[in-house]
């Protein structure tokens, strides 16, 4: 699996290269700036891009914008974005681009996976590598802190959310992070059938369309949580 990696800090970039290579990834390019990232994505056709949001020369959202442009040019390119801080705007921009991915492009690039993680997750090697693989395989990976902020902002004024049971809220949070029913069942130590029932109840209470497609249901839940921002 070929990876284009963009990170301006040499030590972190070198560490990520070593980590990914140790888990069987091929590093097609490891770059430190926006222009280098744009060239690498245009020329190398990676299976997944792992991109720091803030890159030279602007140190604003150069990395994110390069990734979004690449996804417009080559629909479905899987992108995992890394950020130092929780910025819900970045998550929304990624997901908005994902919603517009063509089916043909998504199929070509493994389903058009997207992910948004805090850099702190990098220090948990197993969690980080799992996130890269899930995004490369077409999944959606959202940082738990982003989901918790969205939930907490909506909870106080949202009657449908108030109708959820404590267990349903747990399931909703994990669902919004991009977890499948089987993964949620494993984490909560219950049967997959029980999780399917919880997710059905959640979608009914939030008036969302039921879907077995993990990405579609993540997008639906995040769109719901992000309403009114």
Q: How does this structure look, described?
A:
The protein is α/β, with parallel strands linked by helices. It has two domains: 2-142, Response regulator (Rossmann fold); 145-225, Response regulator (Rossmann fold), CATH 3.40.50.2300. It is built from twelve helices and six strands. It has helices at 10-22, 34-44, 62-73, 88-99, 103-108, 125-136, 144-155, 159-162, 166-176, 181-188, 192-205, 214-225; strands at 2-6, 26-31, 48-52, 79-83, 114-118, 140-142. It has a six-stranded parallel β-sheet with strand order 2-1-3-4-5-6, sandwiched between helices. α1 (10-22) links the parallel β1 (2-6) and β2 (26-31). The chain starts with a strand and ends with a helix.
In terms of structural class, how would the helical and strand content be classed?
Answer: alpha/beta
State the fourth-level CATH superfamily of the largest domain: Response regulator
Q: Total number of helical segments?
A: 12
Specify the overall morphology. globular
**What's the alpha carbon Rg, rounded to whole Å?**
17 Å
Strand order of the largest sheet: 2-1-3-4-5-6
Total DSSP E strands: 6
Roughly what percent helix? 55-70%
Look up the CATH topology of the largest domain.
Rossmann fold
Give the distance, in angstroms, between the N- and C-terminal Cα atoms: 37 Å
Secondary-structure arrangement, i.e. CATH architecture of the largest domain:
3-Layer(aba) Sandwich
Low-pLDDT runs of 5+ residues are 99-111
**Top-tier CATH class of the largest domain:** Alpha Beta
Chain-averaged pLDDT: 86
Count of spatially separate domains: 2
Please write the string of helix (H) and strand (E) elements. Answer: EHEHEHEHHEHEHHHHHH
Largest sheet: 6 strands, parallel
Sheet-strand content, in percent, reads 5-15%
């Amino acid at each position: 699996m070929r990876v284009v990696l963009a990170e301006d800090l040499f030590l972190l970039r070198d560490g990520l290269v070593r980590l990914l290579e140790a888990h069987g990834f091929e590093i097609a390019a490891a770059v430190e700036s926006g222009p280098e990232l744009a060239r690498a994505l245009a020329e190398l056709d990676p299976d997944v891009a792992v991109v720091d949001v803030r890159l030279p020369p602007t140190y604003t959202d150069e990395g994110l914008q390069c990734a979004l442009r690449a996804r417009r040019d080559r629909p479905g390119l899987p992108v995992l974005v890394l950020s130092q801080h929780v910025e819900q705007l970045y998550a929304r921009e990624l997901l908005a681009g994902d919603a517009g991915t063509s089916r043909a492009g998504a199929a070509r690039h493994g389903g058009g996976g997207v992910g948004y993680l805090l850099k702190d997750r990098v220090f948990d090697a197993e969690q980080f590598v799992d996130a890269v693989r899930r995004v490369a395989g077409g999944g959606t990976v959202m940082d738990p802190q982003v989901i918790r902020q969205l939930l907490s902002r909506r909870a106080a004024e949202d009657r449908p959310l108030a109708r959820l049971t404590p267990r349903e809220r747990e399931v909703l949070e994990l669902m919004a992070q991009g977890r499948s029913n089987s993964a949620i069942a494993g984490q909560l130590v219950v049967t997959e059938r029980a999780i399917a029932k919880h997710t059905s109840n959640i979608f009914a209470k939030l008036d969302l369309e039921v879907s077995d497609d993990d990405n579609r249901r993540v997008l639906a839940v995040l769109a719901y949580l992000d309403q009114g921002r």
